[in-house]
Specification:
This protein is an alpha/beta fold. The protein has 14 helices and ten strands. It is about 35% helix and about 10% strand. The structure holds zinc ion (ZN). Zinc ion binds next to strand 1.
């Protein structure tokens, strides 16, 4: 590769690496347990699912199409984002390979992710594979064949311990396939999370040593009220592991805002390792950033329906460098 940029090449696309699939297709293996979700919007959906017949008819037959159409409409409305990685969610498994039905709070099956990405060119598949599944390696291979650009985990909820030596072969396979791991770091608040310590970025050393490109979702930032502050551990590890990145998903929330602002102001080298992600459909709150935007602009953005551009404008105002927006293109298995 030449060091001189090729001016004839089209600029790198802007990819949002952190967009959630939400489906109600129980006939396709979806699980969304009542009361399993902490986030109010998601909880409402799960609760509606268990309420009236009229809602059930909509949720059963039309919800998925409505959800994907409205997501893609917003992506097309955006003047900045080209594509989004749609994320799956695998079941919880015990370390002996048994699916843990009681601990499984949600499943968004990989096939639904692949089908959505086949239907809409704006979507890239980000399936989820629990490394304790008996067929974990085969599922990784299958996912890569079907075009997966990364693998998504929420260890706090899906109960995989990223530091467990037994999953080293899984990491080696990921590295061989060139599949990055996007894994939740910090405390998990959107869903119930029985093992919050699995979100500790220090547990990612094994994956990094196995050569996996790891993107620490939320950059180890969880919330200023959580008992352990994981963010400094993540920042320290950036120096040691060039294959470690972070995403800025949900960092516009009031409990994570501090990390975004601090990083933009004091940690430019860390910002050089950040990747763009929103955590859609998690809402954006421009009013939390009115000291950067000015109150009139914050109000105008609050009224806007252009979700993806509003989210970016808020982060840029807080000091996120533009380069974050296109970094994913050089990291994902495109
Ligand atoms: Zn998320």
């Amino acid at each position: 590769m030449s060091d001189t940029p090729d001016r004839t090449a089209s600029p790198a696309p802007c990819i949002d690496i952190h967009v959630h699939m939400v489906s109600t297709r129980e006939d396709r293996g979806v699980v969304l347990k009542k009361g399993a979700l902490g986030d109010p919007g998601m909880r409402l959906l799960a609760d509606l699912r268990h309420s009236s017949l009229r809602w059930n008819a909509f949720l059963e037959k039309r919800f998925d199409a409505w959800y994907l159409e409205s997501l893609v409409r917003k992506l097309r409305m955006s003047g900045r984002v080209d594509k989004a990685v749609l994320l799956g969610f695998d079941a919880a498994y015990a370390t002996d390979g048994r699916r843990d039905e009681a601990a499984t709070l949600a499943i968004m099956p990989n096939d639904l992710i692949f089908e959505a990405a086949e239907k809409y060119e704006e979507l890239l598949p980000g399936p989820s594979v629990n490394p304790y599944r008996p067929d974990a390696i085969e599922e990784l291979e299958r996912c890569r064949e079907r075009g997966a650009v990364l693998i998504k985990w929420v260890p706090n909820t899906q109960l995989m311990d990223p530091a467990d030596e037994r999953i080293a072969p899984f990491y080696e396979k990921m590295a061989a396939l060139g599949l990055p791991l996007l894994t939740h770091t910090g405390y998990e608040h959107a869903m119930k999370a029985p093992r919050q310590e699995f979100g500790d970025p220090r547990r990612l050393r094994l994956a990094l040593e196995c050569g996996v490109t790891v993107i620490a979702a939320h950059a180890g930032a969880s919330g200023v009220h959580d008992p352990v502050e994981y963010f400094p551990f993540f920042i320290e590890m950036l120096d040691e592991f060039p294959n470690l990145y972070g995403d800025l998903a949900a960092l516009t929330w009031i409990n994570r805002k501090k990390y975004l602002v601090d990083m933009a102001r004091d940690l430019p080298q860390a910002m050089d390792r950040m990747v763009h992600g929103t955590d859609y459909p998690v809402p954006v709150w421009p009013l939390f950033f009115r000291e950067f935007l000015g109150a009139p602009r914050a109000l105008a953005l609050t009224a806007s329906r252009n979700y993806f551009d509003v989210e970016i404008e808020v982060k840029l105002a807080a000091g996120m460098p533009e380069a974050v927006l296109t970094r994913a293109a050089s990291i994902l298995a495109l």
